[in-house]
Amino acid sequence: MKPLFQLSTRKYDEEIILVKNAMVQLEEKCNVKNGFALKEPSMMAGWAFFNIELSTEMLSVIETSGMMINAQGVGFSEQLKNFLGHYLETKGSNVRIKKIDY
């Protein structure tokens, strides 16, 4: 099963550009093609919610490369969520991230 995360923001038009650019950079760093998929947003009460899914190949590289060494959390899925959230934050994004499925 591929990991799926829900991202939320009040500034979708700005954040989607930052998220896409950050994820393309992560793909390049992992040397993976088609490493993620962004799903269509849904809007509710001024918030935009959209999902991001990581490919199995990208997940494997992230897990085995040592990128998550300083990611805190109980269990792998929480560490992965924290890693991805921190990575997006270092690239200028202010989205909130929530683990949906893994």
What does this 3D model show about the protein?
About 45% of the residues lie in helices and about 25% in strands. The longest helix has 19 residues, at about 10-30. The model has no long low-confidence stretch (mean pLDDT about 90). The protein has one domain (about 5-100). Strands 1, 2, 3, 4 and 5 form a five-stranded antiparallel β-sheet that branches. The protein has helices at about 10-30, 55-65, 75-90; strands at about 5-10, 35-40, 40-45, 45-55, 95-100. The chain is α+β, with helices and mostly antiparallel strands and about 100 residues long. Strand 3 and strand 4 form a beta hairpin. It has three helices and five strands.
Q: In the residues, how many domains can be counted? A: 1
**End-to-end separation:** 6 Å
The largest pleated sheet is described as:
5 strands, antiparallel
Shape assignment: globular
- The H/E string reads EHEEEHHE
**Binned strand content:** 25-35%
- Give the low-confidence spans: none
Compile the SSE list and pairings.
Elements: E1 4-9, H1 12-30, E2 36-38, E3 42-44, E4 47-54, H2 56-65, H3 76-90, E5 96-101
Antiparallel strand pairs: 1-4, 1-5, 2-4, 3-4
List keywords for this structure.
alpha+beta; 102 residues; 43% helix; five-stranded antiparallel sheet
Task: Summarize this entry quickly.
The protein is of the alpha+beta class.
